[in-house]
Known about the structure:
Blueprint: E1 9-13, E2 19-30, E3 33-40, H1 41-45, E4 54-59, E5 65-67, H2 71-88
Amino acid sequence: MEKIEVGEIFTIADENDQEHDVEVLGVLTIEGTDYVAVAFSEELLVETEDDIDIFFLKVDGEGDFSAVESDEEFEKVSAAFDEILAEEE
């Protein structure tokens, strides 16, 4: 699997098979599992005061992405990314 880089843009399909470009905002490994924080590219291109939607995807060993499935896993990943952002400030 190629290493995923911050700033990389790729296309994902939603539950309605509509394709969306997303940009990687962060990459993190937790307990041996890789996760990426992504946002829709079009939201990042528009300067606005509104918050952008950031979501997390799990990366499997073959480089495929899947949604974070449980609230517990989401909270764990969200807290880990928040910790990294706090350290960078």
